[in-house]
Amino acid sequence: MVVKVKVLVRDNEKAEKLKALYPFVIPIIGSLDDVGVIEAVAGEVGVVVNAADCDHIGAISAIIRGLNKHPENAFFIHTSGVASILDSAAGAFMGEKIWDDVTDIEELTALPGGTIHYESDKLVRSACSTIKVAIVSPPAAYGVSPSPWHPTWLALPLLLSVARGLSSGFTVSIGANITSYVHVKDLAQLYVRLLSYAVGSNKDRSQVGDLDVWGPQAYYLAFSEEVSFAESMASLVPVLKQKGVIQDESIKQLSAEDVAGLDGSGMLGIAFGTNERVRSTRAKILGWKPQQPDVRSTWAEVITRYLEEEQRRKIE
Predict the structure, then answer these.
(1) At residue 2, does pLDDT exceed 90?
(2) Do strands 278-279 and 99-100 pair parallel, antiparallel, or not at all (unpaired)?
(3) DSSP string for residues in 240-276
(4) Phi, psi (5° rounding) for residue 293?
(5) What burial class does residue 67 get, using C-beta atoms within 10 Å of its C-beta: 0-12 exposed, 13-18 middle, 19+ buried?
(6) DSSP code of 75?
(7) 3-state DSSP helix/strand/coil percent for the chain, to nearest 5?
(8) Which of 43, 134, 181, 259 is exposed most, by the fewest CB atoms within 10 A?
(9) CA distance 143 to 145
(10) pLDDT band at 1, cuts 50/70/90?
(11) What is d(CA 212, CA 307) in angstroms, rounded to the nearest whole number?
(12) Span 283-301, average pLDDT
């Protein structure tokens, strides 16, 4: 089955590059603030995947309005994230709580107001009575993506900035905090799997076993593996030294004062010092199975690609 995909892109240059890579793509020029455009296209296509800013309420509202105009079944797959369940370990301990998207679904869908992604997730779920919705919530996405603009982990610039400043590896406190990971290509396959229940081979199935594919509890955590930040950094520093990013393979333990001094935004402690432990029971019931290499074995490829992109941007 050939599927035409309409993709919102910001300018003609990106549109042409996208069409060259993926001829089946129909670019739509605009931004998330162009809610009229988003609403109109959502009404035309009937299936929307939001993988942009997960908290852009205007864009989400426009998608819902558009899909509600569709004459047939409409589907909305929204991307959220696990920031809503992070703790405040500051690298000092391994969190005991492991969030499961089946056994903990009642708690996951009833997090208190003010929680990160609360408003956007609530808005998406509010459309369940008229639209078939699902929320995909990934932790840290590793590996190299086919994307021509964002091929590597979004937290990597901050990580490398700190490592370069210290000329070494680092952990927040002792780095005992556990990070859950999913390879970006495995994550993509979860979207493909969900799309099969909208327009593909499983489109006539709304349940798998006792679980609804769509609806207010259709919240899919995407998980491949978990590693402590200390273990992850230990596997990364040899690559950073080999590539000339740092001078030696030592790993410095950063105190709270160090973290505050290095990054006034607070993102350093959040990105590299918190526990985010999840399990993907719901996704696996749908038949999704991670198959890509583990995070520690991908560092050489990831760092090489990041440094190549960094050099290219300097030339441009």
Answers:
(1) no
(2) parallel
(3) HHHTTSSSS--EEEEPHHHHHHH-TTSHHHHHHHS-B
(4) -60, 160
(5) buried
(6) E
(7) 40, 20, 40
(8) 43
(9) 6
(10) low
(11) 43
(12) 96
